[in-house]
């Protein structure tokens, strides 16, 4: 979006008076074994990233260099990633990415009881140290590129005290979201969390405006609202269920269409935003990256996604005598990988993956440090970090055997974790797999 000289000058001032808070404490239970030892925002994505890298990169690319990351569930992996990869900001310029773990700051000794409570328990820090005029609150578990500065500018120009980032979704699918009714000025007249009958957009009764879990608040209004919420006996301490509906009822909340600030569009021109909260959605978003026309462009230097992967050697392809020839087709291969006389087809390999001779990997997502033995056939898999796959393993050809040994998604994607492999080793001897192709079990 083209901006005037006046807007550019105003944005420079606004971003310096703003703090972004990234909510990164989610458990991500629908990802099953992928989040047994890590929070959802710290799950690997796209060969060299973590999910949280997208929200943090959006902050830096938007000029928001004062960021707090609120953590709770199994945060060690996330803490280590941010310490190693996001510690380059200049503290002497008042730039930072601070970790804000649940510290039971209330006298009652509660952990964070909800998204709103996670912010409330950090109010004293905000007032004493950050002292922002505006607060941007972000979910740390979605894949998208967005200019938060544009949303901040729209917030200030509208005179709102609260602005909600929103995407357009088909009305018959909107019941899975927080949905808002708005007038022609985008003022929110009603906000409902997962309504049975979602309100339609003005002028389009087939679409609804759904919340992205992205909010901009005037800091003083946010503090007052969160403090008042503590006195309500029926509160759930949630932005979507409590805070945003109250702001809408008070007449101070506006909607910000994602199309105004989106920095990555699909080949058809749609704004790209993905919730990768299920095994199927996670697999699809990864595999899409190596399609003929990817929905998300990772090779855009105008809005780069930063991350940390450590120092690694280049990917290496060996050709051992008397084995099949290496073949790589439409795949992402990270540094440190060693592929020895194997076939990699439509797959995403993260750092330091080892593939032994005569193995074939197809339509699969392989996380860092995985070792795949000789003569394996792996199709439509997600293999978690550090797994050791024994020689001769076959996955993706027998749905019944896949479901017996591993988690198999509704769309037939097989998730393999090291815990699964350890259970197989301890189990009584049995064939590793069957090579027949049966119908998918109900």
TrEMBL record:
The keyword Transferase applies. GO terms for biological process: glycogen biosynthetic process. Residues 314-416 form the Glucose-1-phosphate adenylyltransferase/Bifunctional protein GlmU-like C-terminal hexapeptide domain. Alpha-D-glucose 1-phosphate binds at residues 112, 178, 193-194, 211. Residues 20-289 form the Nucleotidyl transferase domain. It is an enzyme of class 2 (transferase). PROSITE patterns: ADP_GLC_PYROPHOSPH_1 (PS00808), ADP_GLC_PYROPHOSPH_2 (PS00809), ADP_GLC_PYROPHOSPH_3 (PS00810). It catalyses: alpha-D-glucose 1-phosphate + ATP + H(+) = ADP-alpha-D-glucose + diphosphate. InterPro entries: ADP-Glc_PPase, ADP_Glu_pyroP_CS, GlgC_bac, GlmU/GlgC-like_hexapep, NTP_transferase_dom, Nucleotide-diphossugar_trans, Trimer_LpxA-like_sf. Pathway: Glycan biosynthesis; glycogen biosynthesis. Transmembrane segments: none annotated. Keywords: ATP-binding, Carbohydrate metabolism, Glycogen biosynthesis, Glycogen metabolism, Nucleotide-binding, Nucleotidyltransferase, Transferase. Pfam families: Hexapep_GlmU (PF24894), NTP_transferase (PF00483). GO terms for molecular function: ATP binding; glucose-1-phosphate adenylyltransferase activity. Its EC number is 2.7.7.27. The record marks 72, 111 as: Could play a key role in the communication between the regulatory and the substrate sites. PANTHER family: GLUCOSE-1-PHOSPHATE ADENYLYLTRANSFERASE, GLUCOSE-1-PHOSPHATE ADENYLYLTRANSFERASE-RELATED. Belongs to the bacterial/plant glucose-1-phosphate adenylyltransferase family. Homotetramer. Involved in the biosynthesis of ADP-glucose, a building block required for the elongation reactions to produce glycogen. Catalyzes the reaction between ATP and alpha-D-glucose 1-phosphate (G1P) to produce pyrophosphate and ADP-Glc. NCBIfam families: glgC, PRK00725.1, PRK00844.1. HAMAP family: GlgC. This is Glucose-1-phosphate adenylyltransferase. The gene is glgC.
């Amino acid at each position: 979006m083209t901006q005037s000289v006046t807007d550019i000058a105003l944005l420079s001032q606004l971003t310096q008076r703003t703090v972004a808070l990234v909510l990164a404490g989610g458990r991500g239970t629908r990802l099953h074994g992928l989040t047994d030892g890590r929070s959802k925002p710290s799950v690997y994505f796209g060969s060299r990233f973590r999910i949280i890298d997208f929200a943090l990169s959006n902050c830096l690319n938007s000029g928001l260099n004062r960021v707090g990351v609120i953590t709770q569930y199994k945060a060690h992996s996330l803490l280590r990633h941010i310490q190693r990869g996001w510690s380059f900001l200049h503290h002497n310029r008042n730039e930072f990415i601070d970790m804000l773990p649940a510290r039971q700051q209330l006298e009652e000794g509660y952990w964070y009881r909800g998204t709103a409570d996670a912010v409330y328990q950090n109010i004293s820090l905000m007032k004493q140290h950050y002292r922002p005029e505006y607060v941007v609150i972000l979910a740390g578990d979605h894949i998208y590129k967005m200019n938060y500065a544009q949303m901040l500018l729209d917030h200030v120009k509208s005179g709102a005290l609260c602005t909600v980032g929103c995407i357009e979704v088909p009305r018959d699918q909107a019941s899975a979201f927080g949905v808002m009714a708005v007038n022609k000025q985008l003022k929110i007249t009603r906000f409902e969390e997962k309504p049975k009958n979602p309100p339609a957009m003005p002028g389009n009764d087939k679409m609804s405006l759904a919340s992205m879990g992205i909010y901009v608040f005037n800091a003083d209004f946010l503090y007052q609202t969160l403090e008042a919420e503590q006195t309500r006996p029926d509160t759930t301490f949630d932005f979507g269920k409590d805070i945003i509906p109250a702001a809408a009822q008070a007449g101070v909340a506006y909607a910000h269409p994602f199309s105004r600030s989106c920095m990555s569009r699909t080949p058809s021109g749609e704004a790209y935003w993905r919730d990768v909260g299920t095994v199927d959605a996670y697999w699809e978003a990864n595999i899409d990256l190596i399609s003929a026309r990817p929905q998300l462009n990772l090779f855009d230097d105008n809005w780069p996604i930063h991350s940390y992967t450590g120092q690694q050697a280049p990917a290496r392809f060996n050709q051992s005598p008397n084995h099949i020839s290496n073949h790589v087709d439409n795949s992402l291969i990270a540094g440190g990988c060693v592929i020895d006389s194997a076939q990699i087809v439509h797959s995403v390999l993260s750092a330091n993956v080892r593939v032994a001779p005569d193995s074939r990997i197809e339509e699969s997502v392989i996380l860092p440090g995985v070792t795949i033995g000789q003569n394996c056939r792996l199709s439509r898999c997600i293999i978690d970090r550090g797994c050791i796959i024994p020689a001769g393993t076959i996955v993706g050809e027998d749905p019944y055997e896949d479901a017996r040994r591993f988690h198999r998604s509704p769309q037939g994607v097989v998730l393999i974790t090291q815990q699964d492999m350890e259970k197989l080793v301890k189990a009584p001897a049995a064939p590793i797999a069957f090579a027949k192709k049966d119908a998918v079990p109900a």
